[in-house]
Amino acid sequence: MKYNNTLVYIAACIGMAFFGIAFIVMGSVLPSLTARYALDTVGASSLVTFLPVGVLLGSLIFGPVVDRFGYKILLITSTISALLGLEGLAFFDNLNILRFCIFLIGFGGGMLNGATNALVSEISDDKNRSSRLSILGVFYGIGALGIPFLLGFLSEYYTYQIILQRTGLFMLLCVIYFIAIKFPEPKFKQGFPIKKALTLIKEPLLLIMSFFLFFQSGLEGLINNWTTSYLEGATNIDKSNVILSLTFFVLGMTIARLLLSYLLHIIKHSRILIGGIIIAMLGIIILNYSSTFYMAATGLFMTGFGIAAGFPVMVGIIGSIYKETTGTAIGIALFIALSGNTILNYVMGHVSKVFEISSFPVSIIILLVLQAIIIFSNTKIINK
After folding, report:
1. Distance separating alpha carbons of residues 163 and 165, to the nearest angstrom
2. N or C: which end of the chain has fewer CB within 10 A?
């Protein structure tokens, strides 16, 4: 029995929404956890660090698992991992158990991110791969915007524990959906070719695409993590409005990916990427001169809108070139990409100490320029 392309695509979109929840949930519940356990800054940071560790590990191992055992088992286990982590935050009081739960959320989220990208790449043809990956990215935005919205809207009526419990219940229902439908068969039923996977690490083309995503993931991480500090330190915008303005970054990215699902069919990919970088640079310039909430929100919206094409286009190219080992190739790329998030956030910490937080916009512009150099150097491959 052949799998149903539409049903599988829906499953991938659901999984990506769960990754959005997993990636954002700590930022949403951290203030409540900090207050509940009377954590200082160091204690709060020690909790948060377990999330990216889990995401990195999940991104690294999902590829060989998918290519060897298929998508069904990975979507089920990764969703259950994130689900158990969320339920752990809701039910347990022990800080050591909470750290493990946060790791589970990140681990499940990392596998979901990789598996859903690889799955959509595999069930799509070369003409619609990038556009379908763009729609997939919209569901990341739905998950990422949805959890803080739910917590903000329902917190007057329910505790964060009850909201997380209900979210976990919904995820469990989706696991039943994953169990019920058929997915593409594993690439290597008789055993995974380790030597072939190791050769991918040395592939120059894969490394070039991966390092574009290294800067892409770094950009997204820096903007999500440092914009509030920049606006609070460099402007007089009210703190509540500073936090609200950040949602416009995700909103811009989500709307752009909806448009990209159409534009990628009619405009060369390199032109979309360069056009996006120009829009993002203009957004950062507006952010740099922001004195009001509306200016900051506009700048962040433009920045999110501008960098939205990075992941769909590059993951689509990787999926087109490495069809025999889709999961492993995308896994390597996403591991390098997420390493960029961690490394560049660490570097930004030192830069902000030496040059102060006012250097933040310049740092973002530098990363956008590096991305532009990679695009101009590989235009033929990107447009092929």
Report:
1. 5
2. N
Distance CA 28, CA 163 (A): 12
Q: Is the pTM of this model over 0.90?
A: no
For 287, how many CA atoms within 13 A lie in the half-sphere containing its CB? 35
- Counting the structural domains of the chain, the total is 2
Whether the predicted pLDDT of 45 surpasses 70: no
Q: Which of 181, 215, 236 is a domain's end point?
A: 181
**pLDDT top residue among 200 and 321:** 321
pLDDT category of residue 43 using cuts at 50, 70 and 90: low
In angstroms, the CA 108 to CA 85 distance is 9
Exposure string over 362-371, b if 16+ CB within 10 A, otherwise e:
ebbbebbeeb
Same domain, 159 and 23: yes
User: If you ran DSSP here, which 8-state letter would residue 236 be given?
Assistant: -
Instruction: Encode pLDDT of 324-383 as tens digits.
Output: 777 788 888 888 998 888 888 888 888 877 887 788 899 999 999 999 999 998 888 777
- Tell me the C-alpha to C-alpha distance, in Å, between residue 159 and each of 53, 87, 122, 167, 309: 27, 13, 41, 13, 37
Q: Is residue 190 classed as helix, strand or coil in its secondary structure?
A: coil
Domain housing 4:
1-181
Query: Of the residues 181, 211, 240, which one is the last residue of a structural domain?
Result: 181
